[in-house]
Amino acid sequence: MELYLMSETHINASKCSKCKKAVYPPRNTCPFCGVVSEPSIIIKINNRGTVLSYTTLFMCSDEFTSPVRLALVRLDMDVTILCLADEDEDQDIAIGSQVELTYDSETRIRYRVLN
Q1: pLDDT value of position 89
Q2: The domain that contains 89 carries what CATH number?
Q3: Which domain does 90 fall in, by range?
Q4: Cα(58)–Cα(92) distance, rounded to whole angstroms?
Q5: Rounded to whole angstroms, how far apart are CA atoms 76 and 6?
Q6: pTM for this structure?
Q7: pLDDT score for 8
Q8: Same domain, residue pair 27 and 56
Q9: How far from each other are the two terminal CA atoms of the chain, in whole angstroms?
Q10: Which of 25, 31, 72, 111 has CA atoms 20 to 30 A from the CA of 103?
Q11: Residue 42 parent element (H or E)
């Protein structure tokens, strides 16, 4: 199973065969009801979503350059993903902002604010 597959228009998530909830990254065991599905049901979800919350970290590991901006983004089917700001992103973000998700060169999920 390709856990982190993402295209320009969608991400792959898994959908539980019992409770029908979706989760990212895809997995065989549903975190909501515990049912095991092998193989898991892979669904495509639009990679655009809405910011639920955001924060800026001023103290972070050596892997990142401070400040690090993070956003919790809700996608279709109530899938939520915590992601980093795009490396070139300098726009203001607010709760309710519409964003698009992408991957960086290290396959970390990043967001950019849509106008």
Answers
A1: 67
A2: 2.40.50.840
A3: 47-113
A4: 17
A5: 15
A6: 0.85
A7: 72
A8: no
A9: 34
A10: 31
A11: strand 41-46
